[in-house]
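step=encode ok
step=design start
structure_in=
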C-alpha cells in the first residue's frame, strides 16, 4: 500500500516566516529546480513567471507600486488603478505586505514616515504571538486570524502521489475565505470609511493569499476591473524565485526533521507562488451569487451602502 506523507502547517509557516532574513542575499535565477529534484519528482512544477501567472497591465507601474525596504520583498501600494467614473485609487492610502517581524531600523523609520494609522495582521493568533511585529509608532495593531477555525490543513496534502494536491488545497482555502470570512475582512473595510484613519497596512505571512483577497475586495468596491485586480494579485510572483530558492530549503528541512520519510524541496514548489485561478474563484463566487461586491458585503457583514460609498470616497481620487 502506498504511503501518504502527512505534514504540519506549523512547519511551513515557520519557513515562510524566514522570508525577510534572506532578502539581502537575493539571487536572480531563471530556474531554481535542481537536476536531483527533477529526478526524484513526479510532480510537474508551475512556472510562476510565465505570461499566465505574472500578468502586467497598463497601470502596473512597478517603480511606484513596489515598496522596496531592506527586509521586505512583497510590500506594495494599491494606488493608481482606474475605477468608477474613471477615478483612480489614491496612492499612499493602503499598503499590502508580508509580515513585519524582521524590519530593519531603516525599514521601521521608512514606515514611520508613511504615517500608518492601523496595522491589520491576518495570521493565526498563535503565530502572531510567537513573533514580534515592528509596528510603526502611533499605529494601532489588530490581529484578525481570517483562517482560524477553517476545517482544512496542509496535513491533507498528498505530496507523494497527487500532482494537483497543492492546487486543490489552495482552492479550498480561497473558497473558505470568500464563503465564510467576510465579517473579518469587513473590520478593515470599516476603517476605510473614514479617510482620517488612513493610511493603513495589512498583511499575512507572505502577503499573497489572505492579503490578496483583502486587496481584491477593496479594488472591487472601487470599481476596478477584474482583469486589473487579477494583474495586481499576480505581482506576488515577482518574488517567487527568492521565496522558493531559500524558503523551499528551510521548509523541506523543517518538515523532514525526525520524520521517517523524506519530502524533497521540489514537492513544496507551488506553495510559494499564486495562481490567477485561485483569485478568479473568489471573484466568480461574488459575481455569480451576488452580482456585485456591494450585495456580497451587505448580505454577509454589517457594512451598509453608506459605508461602501464612504470607502469609495476615501480610496478614489475626486472626479476630474
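sequence_out=
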Amino acid at each position: 500500500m502506498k504511503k501518504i506523507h502527512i505534514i504540519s502547517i506549523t512547519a511551513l509557516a515557520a519557513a515562510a516566516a524566514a522570508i525577510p532574513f534572506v532578502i539581502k542575499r537575493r539571487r536572480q535565477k531563471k530556474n531554481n529546480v535542481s537536476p536531483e529534484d527533477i529526478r526524484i519528482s513526479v510532480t510537474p512544477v508551475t512556472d510562476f513567471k510565465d505570461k499566465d501567472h505574472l500578468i502586467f497591465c497598463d497601470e502596473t507601474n512597478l517603480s511606484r507600486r513596489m515598496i522596496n525596504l531592506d527586509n521586505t520583498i512583497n510590500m506594495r501600494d494599491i494606488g493608481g488603478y482606474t475605477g468608477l467614473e474613471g477615478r483612480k485609487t489614491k496612492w499612499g492610502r493602503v499598503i499590502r505586505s508580508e509580515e513585519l517581524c524582521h524590519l530593519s531600523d531603516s525599514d521601521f523609520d521608512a514606515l514611520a514616515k508613511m504615517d500608518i494609522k492601523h496595522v491589520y495582521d491576518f495570521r493565526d493568533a498563535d503565530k502572531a504571538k510567537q513573533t514580534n511585529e515592528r509596528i510603526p509608532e502611533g499605529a494601532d495593531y489588530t490581529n484578525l486570524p481570517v483562517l482560524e477555525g477553517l476545517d482544512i490543513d496542509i496535513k491533507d496534502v498528498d505530496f507523494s502521489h497527487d500532482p494537483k494536491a497543492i492546487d486543490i488545497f489552495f482552492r479550498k482555502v480561497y473558497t473558505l475565505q470568500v464563503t465564510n470570512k467576510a465579517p473579518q475582512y469587513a473590520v478593515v473595510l470599516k476603517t476605510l470609511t473614514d479617510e482620517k484613519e488612513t493610511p493603513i497596512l495589512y498583511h499575512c505571512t507572505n502577503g499573497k493569499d489572505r492579503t490578496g483577497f483583502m486587496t481584491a475586495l477593496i479594488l472591487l468596491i472601487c470599481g476596478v476591473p477584474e482583469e486589473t485586480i487579477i494583474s495586481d494579485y499576480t505581482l506576488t510572483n515577482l518574488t517567487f524565485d527568492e521565496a522558493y530558492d531559500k524558503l523551499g530549503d528551510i521548509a523541506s528541512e523543517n518538515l523532514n526533521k525526525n520524520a521517517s520519510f523524506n519530502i524533497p524541496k521540489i514537492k513544496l514548489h507551488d506553495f510559494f507562488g499564486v495562481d490567477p485561478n485561485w483569485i478568479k474563484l473568489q471573484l466568480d463566487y461574488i459575481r455569480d451569487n451576488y452580482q456585485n461586491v456591494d450585495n456580497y458585503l451587505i448580505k454577509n457583514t454589517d457594512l451598509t451602502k453608506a459605508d461602501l460609498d464612504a470607502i469609495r470616497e476615501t480610496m478614489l481620487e475626486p472626479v476630474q
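step=design ok
step=annotate ok -> Residues 1-11, 19-31, 35-42 have pLDDT under 50 and may be disordered.
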